[in-house]
Amino acid sequence: MWQRNNGRAEEELQIKFTGYLIQAIRRTQRDYLKALYAYSNQETLTDTIFAVSQTLEQEVMERLPLWEKIESSALLYALKQLDERERYVFLARVLDKRPFDVIGVQLGLSYKGTAAVYYRAIRKLKKSIEGVNGYDI
Amino acid sequence: MTFEQMLRRAKAGDHEAITSILLMYRPLLLKYAVINGRLDEDLYQELCITLMRAIDLFRI
């Protein structure tokens, strides 16, 4: 077995070789750690994507049809009593926060006409909710 | 056998010489293969390959 460097002049070559080797090793180590770091970053990225997909799932759950989400059965009943146009105007106004003129353009109504439909719908809803609550369904 | 002889034989592809150089530098390689207090075996492999390449590339 080779003996360790004991300081003799002829082993200068070994000292040089060791220096050369250490430099090469440091470079390899640095590249390796860099690759490892990039890899772990990718891993975190995948994790985030996974997390995002989870929230997407939650979002889908949140986008259930309206009638699955309404907790008040009285409100649900009242909404069912409205006709199609009144319900559309009411939901567009309340949920999507669309202004009357936009809804009006979509339905072929004027601003005033849309507002009238909306307030009529509100009145109907109030009336039927009060009625339903009176019977306590 | 001096180090120079051994290195020349290793350069020529003498397996025995390569092995003894590898054994000689093993502690050094192990020292550099430790990351966060744990020995990274993949890095150790890489460093062994680096040593082989250093033997080939080193100019005497």
TrEMBL record, chain A:
InterPro entries: RNA_pol_sigma_r3/r4-like, WH-like_DNA-bd_sf. It comes from the Bacteria. SUPFAM superfamilies: Sigma3 and sigma4 domains of RNA polymerase sigma factors. This is RNA polymerase sigma factor (Sigma-70 family). It comes from Allofournierella massiliensis.
TrEMBL record, chain B:
GO terms for biological process: DNA-templated transcription initiation. Residues 7-59 form the Helix-turn-helix conjugative transposon-like domain. Coiled coil: none annotated. SUPFAM superfamilies: Sigma2 domain of RNA polymerase sigma factors. One of its GO terms (molecular function) is DNA-binding transcription factor activity. It holds the Pfam family HTH_16. This is Helix-turn-helix protein.
